[in-house]
Design goal:
The chain is 31% helix and 17% strand. It is an alpha/beta fold. Strands 3-2-1-4-5-6 form a six-stranded parallel β-sheet. The chain is globular, with a radius of gyration of 21 Å. The model has no long low-confidence stretch (mean pLDDT 93).
Amino acid sequence: MRKILVVGPSWVGDMVMAQSLFMHLKSDGDCEIDVLAPGWSLPILERMPEVRRGVVMPIGHGRLGLFTRRRLGKELAQESYGQAIVLPGSLKSALVPFFAGIPQRTGFRGEMRYGLINDMRLLDRAKLPMTVQRFVALGQPPDAAPVSPPRPQLCADSANQAALWERFKLDPERPAIAFMPGAEYGPAKQWPPTHYAKLAHLLAARGFQIWVLGSEKDCAVARPIANGNPSVIDLTGRTSLGDAVDLIALARAAVCNDSGLMHVAAALDVPLVAIFGSSSPEHTPPLASRVVIETLRLNCAPCFERHCPLGHTRCLTGISPEKVLAGLESFGDAPLSS
């Protein structure tokens, strides 16, 4: 049986999309997959049946930590991996597989990592425009034709779901819509909280409860959404990443920005309206069938900036709550039906 170490990405959405690579590797032959990744990502990896275990990278994003990486590599050498697949493009991300003496170390050409990567691939961005396509390509032979990536499929934890109902005193009789109003990258990806608040009132009038999910960093954008609306339950900063995954799986539908939790909702096959502003759905779309993408495709977009260079963010403010509500109503299985 092949043993493969995958050096995982540092963002929630990218980690979810990496499951497509794991699924492809499993379909291509019997193998065991371990993933070297930040500690926060373990709840995501635990919900991927293709992954044998997650190995915590003890060094924060952006830090070299050469001696720590060398020590970790020597520890992992005992696993006798046959291949390492390095998803990030940085030099430091290739150090642990090198120190572990893994014979085949696969990755795209990046920051001067000749020798560290000995199965070097050249990235054809036109041929592989989507991040998920690039991940899966590293699991193929160098000369193989691109394949259609399998869609990520996270598995919710039913025992934790039952505990969350009780812990937050959620109403099991009222269907829920999950809002994920944050975006780690910056405000140029965030639909205005006032728009979320109006949509929440429209949904509450139809008998829904609204769960606002996110980290502590998202509390500021969540407050105006919950303000004065008893149907809104603000859970930002009160749940772990694994909790958020399991709550999204319980929702009737979800509304979110282009963010990591957008990819989580897609991987759970929850009907989803995804709102794109400064970024492009052609590069990192939600990988699911029940998705409506709202984007205005202005001449200035996508700019991929953290803050709007023109100062107006019309790519987001121009998407009305009524338009997003219509997107929710458009799903064939009618998630807004009573």
